[in-house]
Every structure is written in structure tokens, then in C-alpha cells.
Amino acid sequence: MGVVKLFRLLEQHDRWCPKGSLPIILGDGFLLEHNSLYRAMRKAALGCDFIFSSEFDPAYLALPLAQLESLIERKKVPFFDNVTVLRDVERKIPRVSLWDEVVDNLKRNYVFHESCHAVFHTERAQVFPNDLDRESKILQILLEESYANTCELIGVVEAEDPIHRIFYEVNSYILMFDYRSLMKELIRDLGFELIFRFMLLCYLHANFLYERIEDRTFDGVMGLLIPDAEQKRNLKKDQKNLKKLRSLSKAAFQLNPRFRQVTNGFYLKMIGVEFQNENNNKRAEPRAIDFLSRLESHSNFSKLVDSMVSLVLSETRNIHADK
Asked: Is 100 within 8 Å of 75 (Cβ atoms)?
């Protein structure tokens, strides 16, 4: 990516201050201006009456995962001031500090990821106002996490230059720039919506503790994505793009295995849903849930997914391969 000096980053940070930006989050205004998915989640979160607060929250600082329900209940997305300290560094030793010298120790912000949760949670509460059975509740939760994963993955498509990549890096969990060109090609050939929905299902498999999508399952996924018989036949003939889709699907399974097995399990227990393990070393039960059938047969799940995909489509019409 080359050498980037801190003062150059701060110049770009100060240059972009669109409405709704948070000036003490490094790169926030830049990303709102230049990253469609980042902007879509900010607009949607504000539309759901969430606020963004830098008020000190020791519980969130200590254990963020345990605070997600509280965050949503209070409609307050926390963030940290990681700009003032950089200005202090630049003031003491102007125009010489490198980004590489500070990045490893700088506190990151995750308002993008948390906004995805906030918006999805709000929408699913409207679509599913009543309590569901245990397996459907697990699907709801893991679908929400998969949605956040998908937004962060596809957000890298617009990170064309080093500044954009750096700002995205300090505001995201998922950083898979190596898949960027492949996603751009597939979006160009098959459309943004199909690729978004495809990766949502791939991440859902990963969060249900699958290690990959088997061939038979892959056909089922494509059938769910493309109900039109003629379109499905045409894609089956398109071996080049099918091969690319299979390659892209691997991105979802690069989620940290410990996160998938332990962190997701911990969160489910926090909200009163627990996997019952016969073997402490293997969490097999999630894979026993036929979540694809539930997505296909339960109209409210389809409604929820359609609503959340539509939300990002309105802001992502400029994402294409030759941008």
C-alpha cells in the first residue's frame, strides 16, 4: 500500500465532513462520502432513531459483545475519539509520523458493524413481533450477524485507494481486500443484489458452523437466490461465473473459528438461547437446523431479508466493476 504519513490522513479526514458525520472518528466523514454501504448503515440507523455517543461506557470498553442487547435497547451506538490523540502526535512531531507507526495501537471504532446490528434488529422486531420457537430464534440471531458480515465484506469493493483502505481498516472487523477484484467482476456480471444475497447465505452457513458449502448445498443456495427457472438454467451454463462464485464463497469461511464457535455461542446464551452439547469439543447442533428450508418456507424470513437487502440497494447503485 506504500508509505502513508499521518498528516496526509488527517488532511483527508478533515476534508470530508458530510451531514451526520462524527468528526472524532478517524475517516468517518470520508467513508460516509465515498463508501455506499457505510453510508447506507448510518442513514438507516439514524432513521431508526439510534444516536451515536462517545460518552464513556466502561462495560462496552471491557466486553463489547455482552453489551449488544443494551446498545439496541438504549438506541445508543458507542464510539471512541481516536482523532484527538493523532492530532496531538502530529502537533508534537509534525509531518514525520507514519501511519504504520500508530495503527497497531490505535483504538478502532465499529459503528459500521454495530449499526448493521441495530438496523437489522429493529427491522426483525417489526417483522417478528411475537416469540418464535428456539430454532427460528437462533436463525434470526445468526442471520443478523451474517448481514453485518456481508455488509463489511462487500464494503471493500469501493476501497480503491490507500486512504480509503486505511479508513475502512480502522472502522471494520472484516478486511478482505484480496477478494475485492473478484467481487467487482461478479457484481458487474451478475448484479449487486445477487452477490449480496449470495454472501449473506454463505456467511449464514459459516455462522451455523459449516466449514464450506458442499456441491449439493450450493445448488440449493442458487435455487433459493434465483427462483426463475430460465435464469437458473442460464447461470448453470455459465461455468466461469459459477467457479467465481464458489471462490468468493470461501471468504465467509475465513471468519475466525473461535469467534464462530465460542463468541456466537456466548451471545446466544446471553439472550437465553443455549446449544445443548453432548461433546464439549464439538458444537454439532447448529448444523442440525435446516435453516435454508426455514428461509424458503417462512414468509416472514423472506420479508425480513428482502427489506434489509432493499435498504442497501438504494445506496449502492454506483458500485460496479469499472468505477
From this structure: no
Rounding to the nearest 10 degrees, give the CA dihedral for residues 176, 179, 183, 185. Answer: 150
Q: Over the Cα atoms of the chain, what is R_g?
A: 20
Question: What does the block give as the cell for 51?
Answer: 444516536
Assess contact for 28 and 35: CB atoms under 8 A: no
pLDDT tens column, 296-314: 888 899 999 999 999 999 8
3-state secondary structure 177-226: HHHHHHHHHHHHHHCHHHHHHHHHHHHHHHHCCCCCCCHHHHHHHHHHHC
What pTM does this model have? 0.92
H or E element at residue 87:
helix 84-92
Q: Please give the pLDDT value at position 257.
A: 73
> What is the DSSP-derived secondary structure letter of residue 288?
G
How do residues 41-57 score in pLDDT, each as one tens digit? Answer: 999 999 999 999 999 88
